[in-house]
């Protein structure tokens, strides 16, 4: 493995305090630490469910936490990687709320006014109350459209996103769009190698090719 990119929503509402990190997922974090110890770069592009990091992942695990998007040359391709929240027509008011929710002042007020247990409980309640397990087809199409616009208007060969939680590959003359899907429910991920991008699925013992047909615009 040359590098690992996490495209957000790794946690269901992550609120890190100065001396407290959310309980759980210790083995996952240990795996990330093992990868970085072995010299594998791990880059974590935060999503709309897990943006409130401080320095734990960087200082303890060696993981680079990214709050927007990243553009990097990988296997001969110019690759744009983002979570995808705030992109596309389905976003509504979210593009205006996103900078407020991530601004240091409201984040500091949330951490300062609410003890860690209360802050995490409130975040989890919000997630349970407003989260939908159903596929949002409007969001899926909107992200695909936004990705294809990025491919047409910029020097990108590949756009990689999450957010819709629907694994897909869409190929045009401008390049390719890959959505990694949802590891939690489908165990899907994207792989980029010398043969180009592909979708894989973990079946419990090995990676297999993901069978979903390529998407069309």
Q: For this structure, what is the CATH class?
A: Alpha Beta
Largest sheet, strands/sense/barrel: 5 strands, mixed
CATH topology: the name is Purple Acid Phosphatase, chain A, domain 2
In what range is the share of β-strand residues? Answer: 15-25%
CATH architecture call: 4-Layer Sandwich
Description:
The protein has 217 residues and is an alpha/beta fold. It has a single domain, classed as Purple Acid Phosphatase, chain A, domain 2. Helices cover 34% and strands 24% of the residues. It is built from seven helices and eleven strands. The protein has helices at residues 26-37, 56-61, 94-102, 104-113, 116-130, 137-153, 183-186; strands at 4-6, 42-45, 64-66, 69-74, 77-82, 158-161, 168-172, 175-179, 188-193, 196-202, 207-209. The strands form three sheets. A five-stranded mixed sheet has the order 4-5-6-8-7, with helices on one face. A three-stranded parallel sheet has the order 1-2-3. Helix 2 (56-61) links the parallel strand 2 (42-45) and strand 3 (64-66). The longest helix is centred in the C-terminal third of the chain and has 17 residues, at 137-153. The model has no long low-confidence stretch (mean pLDDT 89).
């Amino acid at each position: 493995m040359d590098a690992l990119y996490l495209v957000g929503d790794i946690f269901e509402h992550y609120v890190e305090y100065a001396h407290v990190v959310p309980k759980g997922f210790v083995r996952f974090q240990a795996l990330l630490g093992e990868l970085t110890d072995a010299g594998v770069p791990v880059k974590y592009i935060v999503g709309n469910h897990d943006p409130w990091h401080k320095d734990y992942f960087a200082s303890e695990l060696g993981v680079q936490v990214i709050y927007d998007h990243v553009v990097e040359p990988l296997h001969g391709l110019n690759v744009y990687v983002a979570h995808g929240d705030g992109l596309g027509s389905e976003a509504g008011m979210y593009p205006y709320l996103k900078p407020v929710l991530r601004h240091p002042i409201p984040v500091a007020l949330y951490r300062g006014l609410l003890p860690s247990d209360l802050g995490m409980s409130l975040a989890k309640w919000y997630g349970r109350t407003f989260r939908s397990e159903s596929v949002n087809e409007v969001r899926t199409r909107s992200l695909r459209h936004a990705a294809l616009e990025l491919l047409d208007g910029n020097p990108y060969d590949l756009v990689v996103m999450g957010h819709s939680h629907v694994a897909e590959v869409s190929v045009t003359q401008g390049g390719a769009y890959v959505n990694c899907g949802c590891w939690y429910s489908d165990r899907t991920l994207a792989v980029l190698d010398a043969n180009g991008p592909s979708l894989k699925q973990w079946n419990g013992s090995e990676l297999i090719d993901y069978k979903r047909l390529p998407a069309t615009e």
